[in-house]
Design brief:
Blueprint: H1 14-23, H2 28-45, H3 52-81, H4 86-99, H5 103-135, E1 141-146, E2 149-154, E3 163-166, E4 176-180, E5 183-186, H6 188-191, E6 197-199, E7 204-205, E8 210-211, E9 216-220, H7 228-241, H8 245-268, H9 271-275, H10 280-294, H11 297-300, H12 304-316, E10 319-321, H13 324-330, E11 335-339, H14 340-344, E12 350-356, H15 362-373, H16 379-392, E13 400-405, E14 409-414, E15 417-422, H17 424-427, H18 429-434, H19 439-445, E16 449-455, E17 458-466, H20 471-482, E18 486-490, H21 495-505, E19 509-511, H22 516-530, E20 533-537, H23 543-548, E21 551-555, H24 560-565, E22 568-570, H25 577-611, H26 617-636
Helix pairs in contact: 2-3, 2-5, 3-4, 3-5, 4-5, 4-10, 5-7, 5-12, 5-26, 8-10, 10-25, 10-26, 12-25, 12-26, 13-25, 15-16, 19-21, 25-26
Bound molecules: adenosine-5'-diphosphate and magnesium ion.
Adenosine-5'-diphosphate binds near residues 341, 380 and 421.
């Protein structure tokens, strides 16, 4: 991997950057292991031609070169955590073997141990590479316009409010809004959406996406370390640093286990000598084999490589896990709750019908609704604003005291009069139901979201909005059902609309008229029934429910809050990826289980055969280290 100083915008501090670079130290570990292997082989082949002291010196060299990285790691960690670890145990075993004259076995022990260390580093690198391939998408320079002149500056220097120029074919260097020009943008790097989107003045553009055909001027809205792109990278990074509960369990258990092995070693050096009349030499020899084979190397390597492999595999497919724990949990999920707008549907609504009372000024209602909704970010608001623009052109109206009533609608004052726009319950159910000969139930049965405009105690207009169900949603739901997972839709929309959408998506059941805080309560109830429940959502109003669920899943297109609260992010907004992730999670748990059972089994068999006197030291070393390598390789299968 190319390591440049200029990647610094990715890291909050020098220290962070350094620790990152340390971990991606390229192949030195592997090279050291191989050199020690070559020395061992050479010494073994030339054993008869070299002097005893050369023999010892060569082995000492193999010890030092092969063991350096692991010994350093073992000693620093022992000092830092005040707890012995496997690395120390391996050092003791190798030294012990050398002391009783088994130089080659001691050196092989170190060689294979170093090799397994290199393999673990390889997995680590592999998932770090997923980040570095993302890194390449981040331009380092931007063309800033100040006082009418262009200058090329580093993206770090950009501040909120700066204007930058992006020409056709260039990658956009920062998050911002277009102030001049229009272009089509390829957002596939960030959202996975393969169809380019047309962006005009006031539209938002994201760092890392590519402007295809027009020159645009962009006003920066986010600092370099806060862009969407940066958030994604931070998520991948923290995912790798967070350890899963079973990994933590093994690590906690490691210290105690090592102590037990050392005590057993101390006792077993002499016990058989006294009990079974073994010679002291045999007794010590068997104790050293015990020390070698009882080391929990394989056990310690059972989980991390598997988890990292699975995380990077899934990141490649557009599902970001914020930690191994979530991957571990996913396969336990029994039910999944979905938000409607923006999750099951594309969240890009359009106004399909609009009716107004005959005694009100239709243009005035349209203008005012557009002006009020212009201040809201809800998908409904965007649709109504667009509709107004289309009907009456530019809107210049003073909107005062605009308020969002979450899960209900919005209200504001125009010329001292209160206007409310929102769902039937919000403007008054009876008024809404009788408006325009009961048009509400007709529109709602068609799966449309119906929103009323009310002022001075009277409903003056109604908008019907249609959203389209995501293509992958139906597939995803069907697959989840075959996996035996219950699907539930939670929505703030009314019952009829909810039913129409739920039927179309093929979802098992739905709960309509949910206020944001009610989504949380429903989720708690679902947890009581199904125990392990995931929630998929995109909006600010979904965040509390995402946090309440056993596993929160956010749509990549979703709001920042949703992305931050969730445990898993569907980068490509592709719901059908959930089923793949569940399978991957199941596969990972199975592999970890295999590894743990296998490692413990091998240890038990080796200890037993040692004291049945059928195992010698070379075989002990191979059995023990072989199992470690096998366990790591088994974990690496998850990369595929
Ligand atoms: P969802 O679960 O579909 O994402 P929300 O909780 O965001 O729904 O909103 C619930 C309902 O509140 C919407 O169906 C709509 O009737 C109303 N509503 C929310 N925001 C607005 C708005 N900006 N303008 C009009 N109505 C709104
Ligand atoms: Mg939503």
């Amino acid at each position: 991997m190319e390591v440049k100083n200029s990647i610094s915008p990715l890291f909050n501090s020098k220290r962070e950057e350094k620790s990152f670079l340390n971990k991606v130290q390229p192949h030195t570990e592997l090279i050291a292991a191989l050199i020690s292997g070559v020395i061992i082989l050479f010494t073994w082949l030339s054993e008869n031609y070299i002097s005893d002291s050369t023999f010892v010196i060569l082995h000492l060299l193999a010890f030092a070169i092969g063991g350096f990285a692991k010994a350093k790691e073992g000693i620093t960690e022992t000092i830092n955590n005040k707890e012995l670890n496997v690395e120390m145990l391996m050092i003791f075993s190798a030294i012990g073997s050398a002391i009783i004259g088994y130089w080659t076995e001691g050196a092989i022990l170190i060689f294979i141990f170093a090799l397994s260390g290199a393999l673990e580093t390889y997995t680590m690198n592999k998932s770090k590479n997923e980040i570095s391939s993302l890194l390449k998408l981040q331009p380092e320079d931007a063309t800033r316009i100040s006082n009418g002149t262009e200058e090329v500056v580093s993206v770090n220097k950009l501040i909120i409010g700066d204007l930058i120029l992006v020409r056709a074919g260039e990658r956009i260097p920062a998050d911002g809004t277009i102030t001049k020009g229009s272009t089509t943008i390829d957002e596939s790097a960030i959202t996975g959406e393969s169809i380019p989107a047309t962006k005009n003045i006031e539209d938002e553009v994201l760092a890392g996406t590519v402007s295809l055909d027009g020159t645009i001027t962009v006003k920066i809205t986010k600092a370099a370390h806060e862009t969407m792109f940066q958030k994604i990278i931070n998520m991948v990074q923290s995912a790798q640093e967070e350890k899963s509960p079973s990994q933590l369990f093994i690590e906690r258990f490691e210290g105690t286990y090592v102590k037990v092995v050392l005590i057993a070693f101390g006792i077993m050096m002499f016990l058989p000598y006294f009990l079974f009349n073994w010679s002291l030499e045999t007794s010590i020899y068997r104790a050293i084999i015990l020390l070698v084979v009882a080391s929990p190397c394989a056990l310690v390597a059972s989980i991390m490589p598997a988890t990292l492999s699975a995380i990077s595999n899934s990141a490649r497919k557009g599902v970001l896990f914020k930690g191994g724990i979530h991957l571990e949990n996913l396969s336990q999920i029994k039910a999944i709750a979905f938000d409607k707008t923006g999750t099951l549907t594309n969240g890009k609504l359009i106004v399909t019908d609009a009716y107004f009372t005959s005694d009100s000024d239709e243009n005035e209602v349209i203008t005012i609704s557009g002006a009020i909704e212009n201040e809201s970010t809800h998908p409904i608001a965007k649709a109504i604003t667009a509709y107004s623009h289309e009907k009456v052109g530019n809107i210049k109206i003073q909107v005062n005291n605009m308020k969002t009533i979450h899960g209900n609608g919005v209200e504001a004052e125009i010329d001292g009069k209160l206007w409310q726009i929102g769902k039937p319950d919000y403007v008054g159910k009876q008024l809404a139901e009788s408006f325009h000969d009961g048009v509400l139930s007709k529109l709602a049965t068609e799966g449309k979201t119906v929103v009323f405009v009310k002022t001075e105690g009277k409903i003056v207009g109604v908008y019907a909005l249609k959203d389209t169900i995501r293509r992958e949603a139906k597939v995803a739901i069907k697959n989840l059902q075959t996996q035996g997972i219950k699907t539930i839709m939670l929505t703030g929309d009314n019952d009829l609309t909810a039913k129409a959408i739920a039927d179309e998506a093929g979802i098992d059941s739905y709960i309509a008229n949910c206020l944001p805080e009610e989504k949380v309560n429903h989720l708690k109830q679902l947890r009581d029934i199904h125990h392990n429940v995931a929630m998929v959502g995109d909006g600010i109003n979904d965040a509390p429910a995402l946090a309440t669920a056993n596993l929160g899943v956010a749509m990549g297109e979703g709001t920042d809050v949703a992305l931050e609260t969730a445990d898993v992010v569907l980068m490509k907004n592709d719901l059908s990826k959930i089923t793949n992730a569940i399978e991957l999670s199941g596969r990972m748990n199975r592999i970890v289980k295999q590894n743990v059972v296998f490692s413990i089994g091998v240890i038990a068999i080796l200890i037993l055969s040692n004291y049945l006197e059928v195992l010698d030291l070379p075989l002990g070393v191979i059995g023990h280290e072989g199992s470690t390598i096998l366990v790591i390789l088994n974990g690496l299968r998850l990369l595929k």
